[in-house]
Amino acid sequence: MDLHLLHSSAAFSAVRFFPRQPSPTYLGRRFFTVRSSLPFPNEKAKYHKELEAAVAVVERACSLCVEVQRSLFSDEGRIVEKSDQTPVTVADFGVQALVSLELGKLFPSIPLVAEEDSGFLRENNLVEPVVSVVSDKTSFDEESLSQADVLKAIDRGGKNAFAFGIEPATYWILDPIDGTRGFVQGRQALYVVGLCLVVEGEIVAGVMGCPNWAVDTSNKSTTDAQGYKNSSSESGIIMVAHIGCGTWTKRLNDMFDSSKTISADWTRCLVDSCCLVNKARFCIPESQTWESIPFSVLYEARIDDDDIGDKEIRLLPTCCGSLCKYLMVASGRASIFIQRTRSQKVIRAWDHAVGVICVHEAGGKVTDWKGSEIDLAADQAERRTIYPEAGILVSNGNLHNQILEMVSSNSTVI
């Protein structure tokens, strides 16, 4: 498929569990493997139809991203930027169109809240390239999919597309590509396609796809999660969560090679069991420094594993976007993700929502720095913005209250 991105143009099966011994590298992570289209019986998952559809479309969205990314680095001049200087590619808009089209067909009464709108495409003559990448992945007849269909699908999730009001609402939340800076860096950085379902104000199911995630098959170090040194067939995961059913992952490998069989193995995810701050592994936003965290006066950050002292913590290498950090905590590769809010930066629901359920169902906890749960309904009209008090804390649960106490004791903000 020729992707001239910047060129102007007019049944649940029997389940078996296989416990493995926890590795000290991951501080008590436990694994259970299961074969099925979903890793739990349908009768236990009220929203299994929605989740199955979400998994299917996120898998296709990841495939779309990989193909566009390959094209991005085969020629020059394929990256565009929005007015806020965040790199955006045709994949970003293509994923939103694809997800909107598929979910709109299956669940037409459920609105979509998503990051993009079609105005940028129209202004920069990028409609045709987006139609091209979407046509290759959608279940719609390629001949019948028009530019108007794709633009309408993108705008279905855009600003002002739906007025919610004050009552608890049911809707999808999509981040087409969280970590677009990682996307344009190529195979050495992580990015995530994130999708979740909110029912009557509660996040009930979610899917994250991370094509560049290095699958842990040999107890490698945590840094190996970012980027991959082997072929693409060795990388990528889908993470799913359903309320009351846990968080699970399976490999994305081989879905990009039709000659290979896709593995149906799901692995149960549990947060790590770390109980000591100086033994924990921390993530912070790439735009922030350790010194911006209130209790940095108590602990010095180090990025190596050697001889971490009592007054030091292990700070994992930064990866782009917020959702990959939720993925790190939910999978047990990080203990803490902590983010400080800034008055000049709006915090969007799609940067956090699917991560919240994945961490919760893996045994972790997510609150603001006051200890309150994230309120998705605070933006009553559009459900696009969240307002966490002072910051967001994502943890393995064991360390949550201790971190909140340290934040409170050493902060001039709260």
Automatic annotation (TrEMBL):
It comes from the Eukaryota. Mg(2+) binds at E115, D175, I177, D178, D351. Its cofactor is Mg(2+). Transmembrane segments: none annotated. One of its GO terms (biological process) is sulfate assimilation. Keywords: Hydrolase, Magnesium, Metal-binding. Pfam families: Inositol_P (PF00459). The keyword Transmembrane does not apply. GO terms for molecular function: 3'(2'),5'-bisphosphate nucleotidase activity; metal ion binding. SUPFAM superfamilies: Carbohydrate phosphatase (SSF56655). The keyword Hydrolase applies. PANTHER family: PAP-SPECIFIC PHOSPHATASE, MITOCHONDRIAL-RELATED, PHOSPHATASE. Belongs to the inositol monophosphatase superfamily. This is Inositol monophosphatase.
